[in-house]
Every structure is written in C-alpha cells, then in structure tokens.
Amino acid sequence: MSCFKRVFAKLLLVLALPSAHAGLIDLGVADKYTMAVGQYDFFGMPVGGNLNLGSEAWIHGSVAASNYIGFGSGAIVYGDACSANITAGADVSGTASECSDVVKENSAVFDQLSLDIAQANEQAGALGGIDFGAINSSVAIQANAYDALAVSAIDLTSGEYLTINGSASDQLILNISGNAFVGSGAGILLTGGLTSANVFFNFINDGQTTFNFGGANISGTFLANNGAFIAGDGAQLDDVRFYTNNTLIANVQTVRTKTPVEVPEPSTILVFLIGISFLLVRANFKHS
User: Fold this and answer.
1) Could you count the other beta carbons within 10 Å of the beta carbon of residue 122?
2) Cβ(247)–Cβ(37) under 8 Å?
3) What is the 3-class SS of 237-287, one letter each residue?
4) Cα distances (Å, whole numbers) of residue 183 to 5, 35, 150, 157, 215
5) Hey, is 70 helix, strand or coil?
6) What is the pTM of this model?
7) How do strand 236-244 and strand 217-224 relate by DSSP bridges?
8) Is the pLDDT of residue 160 over 90?
9) Mean model confidence pLDDT for the chain
10) Residue 76 has pLDDT above 60, yes or no
11) Distance between CA atoms of 71 and 87, rounded to whole angstroms?
12) What is the pLDDT of residue 258?
C-alpha cells in the first residue's frame, strides 16, 4: 500500500470515530449556563422558574431563569444573566436581559429552557441503573464500571464524602428517587479526570425533591424537573452546574465550571482530510 493510501485509510478511521466529548444527556439550551432554572408543569400551567443569588455569589459563567432572577447587592456574574425579570444589584459582565431561551408566547406555555431541562431529566431517568440504595456514609464509586446507578437518597454529614473516580472519557448518571443533603464539612468529589460534564445527579421524583447543602465541597451536574436546590454559605463549588424546573436559592461564594476540551467535529476533520489528501497526491506526483 502506498504512503498516500495508508494515511488516507487512517484519516477515514478518525473521521468515523465519535466525538470524545459527546455526553449521555442532551441539555439543549441549558448547556449554555452554569445555573439555569425553568418552570415545571403544575396541571398544565408553568410554575416556578426563580433563581435567587446572594450578595456574595460570584458566578464564573452565565445564569438563566424562566421567571425571575433576584440578585443580592454585590453579586457578580462573569457571563450573561437571561430572564424577563431581573432585579438590580449584580455586576453582570455580559448581557442582562430576556433572551430567546426564556421567551414565551403567553403565561400558559413553556419556554425552551424549561422544555430542555424537563427532557434532559426524563432522558437521564430512562437509563434507570443498578440499585445502589442510599448514600449515607463515605463511599467511592468507579465511574467506568457503570452507565447509571439508582440511588434512593444522599445524606452526608461532616467528614463524609462521596468520591467518584474515572477518566475524562468516563460517564456516570446517578438517578436519585429521594432527596439529597450534604452538610458542612462533607462533600461530593470528582477525581481522575472527571468533570461536571461527565457526572449527573438526576432527581427523578415527579413530586418536589430537595437538594440542600451547606459549607460543603461539591462537584458535578445536578438536574431536576421539580427540584428545590438550596445552597448555603461557605460551599466550595469548583466544578458544578445546576439545572432545575422549580427554584434555586444560592447564598454561595465562587462558582466555577470546568469546560471540557473539544475535539474536532467530523466537518472539521473532513476539511483537514481533503487538505492532507491534496498534499500527498502532489508529493506522489513529484516522486513519479
């Protein structure tokens, strides 16, 4: 086989490989935001959609809410704040106004943000998972061993940690049927290359569920269709994302999200392939 044919075959193989950053769950427009709160379906009417950030909240990313964003004086958002109703008091680096993700024709319809959060919650819940029971003491989980786990509840107090280990290509969904509480001095840790893009804590109860944490060390993506997320003071949030169709109250400090490394999409690779092919043909022509 000529040099041209060998290289051409290898590039075709690369072209056929899936994107390494493609996740199990499609967040839709919610994926733009570090924190996003839509509205859940209350007997055919959109309800909720409120995001409240305390005065010490510094969000390194964008935020959105279908109904309302309330800022404490001194809050900082290093990105956009997307909502029809936004209180003054925050320093927003980007745009602070209603955007297409939360626009509705009238009060009886759901905006795209709400629809996408609900769909992502349903998609993750459909994976079910191996029955893991309740997580109420320190435990370590290896992400590459599972696609999904069914967890009844999470209850961690000071000194107790849920540690999830895995590589940057591993993924894990924890489908939680009950509530979650992580007290001060406790935490949820991702190690070995995992980021919040790889690990989802998905609350699957149709009724309202609660995720409450204090001065804890928290990492991961937290998702609910009808969940009240309540974040207290002193939490360490180095790699988190929060999505719910109810309410999020966060008197937190610095909130960060790690951005996964993007790999070239097939269209990009195809352009590269054509360019390499042309150069190889030209080189073979000269040698002949």
Assistant:
1) 12
2) yes
3) EEEEEEEECCEEEECCCEECCCCCCCCCCHHHHHHHHHHHHHHHHHHHHHH
4) 60, 21, 22, 5, 7
5) strand
6) 0.83
7) parallel
8) yes
9) 85
10) yes
11) 6
12) 80
Residue type present at position 185? G
- Residue corresponding to tokens 């992502």: 120
Q: Helix or strand or coil: residue 195?
A: coil
∠ CA 214-176-233 to the nearest 5 degrees?
10
State how far the alpha carbon of 176 is from the alpha carbons of 4, 26, 43, 205, 235, in Å: 53, 18, 23, 8, 21
- For residues 119, 125, 126, 128, the Cα torsion angle rounded to the nearest 10 degrees is 170
Residue bearing tokens 């509840």: 153
Q: pLDDT, tens digit, for every residue of 182-221? A: 999 999 999 999 999 999 999 999 899 999 999 999 999 9
Is the dihedral angle over the CA atoms 57, 59, 65, 69 positive or is it negative?
A: positive
Amino acid at 106: N
